[in-house]
Specification:
- The protein is of the alpha/beta class.
- The chain has 2 domains: about 1-170, HUPs (Rossmann fold, 3-Layer(aba) Sandwich); about 185-275, 2-Layer Sandwich (Pantoate--beta-alanine Ligase, Chain: A,domain 2).
- The chain is built from 10 helices and 9 strands.
- It has helices at about 5-20, 35-45, 75-85, 95-100, 115-120, 125-140, 150-160, 190-195, 200-215, 220-230, and strands at about 1-5, 25-30, 50-55, 90, 140-145, 170, 235-245, 260-265, 270-275.
- Strands 1-4-3-2-5-6 form a 6-stranded parallel sheet, sandwiched between helices. Strands 7-8-9 form a 3-stranded antiparallel sheet.
- α6 crosses α7 (about 150-160).
- The chain is globular, with a radius of gyration of 19 Å.
- The protein starts with a strand and ends with a strand.
- Bound molecules: adenosine monophosphate (AMP).
- Adenosine monophosphate binds next to α2 and β5.
């Protein structure tokens, strides 16, 4: 497995692969990898001749008071996991390599204005911009994203359609801890007490799935989920919403495929979780 810090190196390596007729999968990450990321890399390895993992804490997707500085990093450990999962190249640029004097950004309306976009108004602009740059640098055949970040996945799918990127977007299921907590690099912020409290998210997901399967409207689903979270003293709801699976706009009557998503503060740590519900 190779590592590269510069765009030039990545382009040269991918060019050689292409010359040999090899297909390329890309897994964009912010590093501090766990089994969630590993599942994406493994899938990319199964479906492509070569796999590139980007390991880059992208500054443009963090707001002014967010955790850019404290975001956990461990590049050596990340490289070991990438190699084990079958990655061929890890791209680990400095912020200065990715952004010199950036005046061009990729924004997406409507889909970015609900759910996480309310509390994090510049987040998806940063995500769309860095993912577009990675797509142009790596020129993958396929790119892999987790359903854990379901709004991000919907936004990337729409961006790829709208901007005619010739890239297949592959969504991968949420990987959870044994007790249900969705794996996240940010789980390391949690104290032992908060770690227990954080289980209210996955409990709310379970409850929501039961209530929605019984044919209830969104308001009933949401109330049942909020009751569980509000019963946890360390938890504070940012949002719990039912939205259309494609345009991320709120829906009341569940007559089409929806995403049920939430963000909850456990102490100072903001965690997300979700489930999708398809109409049969
Ligand atoms: P991040 O490093 O948090 O930006 O995540 C990089 C990619 O890994 C994104 O596509 C995430 O959705 C995905 N991912 C993160 N956590 C999980 C998880 N628990 N299960 C599946 N995918 C995940």
């Amino acid at each position: 497995m190779k590592t590269a810090n510069t765009i030039k190196e990545v382009r040269a390596i991918v060019k050689e692969w292409r010359a040999s007729g090899l297909s390329v999968g890309l897994v964009p990450t912010m590093g501090f990898l766990h089994e969630g990321h590993a599942s994406l890399i493994k899938r990319a390895h199964e479906e492509n001749d070569r796999v590139v993992v980007s390991d880059f804490v992208n500054p443009t997707q963090f707001g002014p008071n967010e955790d850019l500085e404290s975001y956990p990093r461990d590049f050596d450990r990340d490289c070991k996991l990438c190699e084990e999962m079958g990655a061929d190249l890890v791209f680990h640029p400095d912020p200065s390599e990715m952004y010199h004097d950036q005046h061009t950004y990729v924004t997406i309306d409507t889909l970015s204005e609900t759910l996480c976009g309310v509390t994090r108004p510049i987040h998806f602009r940063g995500v769309c911009t860095v993912v577009s740059k990675l797509f142009n640098i790596v020129t993958p055949d396929r790119a892999y994203f987790g359903e854990k970040d379901a709004q991000q996945l919907a936004i990337i799918r729409k961006m790829v359609l709208d901007l005619n990127f010739d890239i297949e977007i592959v969504g991968c299921p949420i990987i959870r801890e044994e007790d249900g907590l969705a794996k996240s690099s940010r789980n390391t912020y949690l104290s032992a007490e908060e770690r227990k409290a954080a289980l209210c998210l996955s409990r709310a997901v379970k409850k929501g799935q039961e209530v929605i399967s019984a044919g209830c409207d969104s308001s009933v689903v949401l109330d049942s989920m909020k009751d569980i979270i509000n019963a946890e003293p360390l938890a504070k709801i940012d949002y719990v919403s039912v939205v259309d699976a494609l345009d991320m706009q709120p829906v009341e009557k569940i007559e089409k495929d929806v995403l049920v998503a939430m963000a909850v503060y456990i102490g100072k740590t903001r965690l997300i979780d979700n489930f999708s519900y398809k109409i049969k």
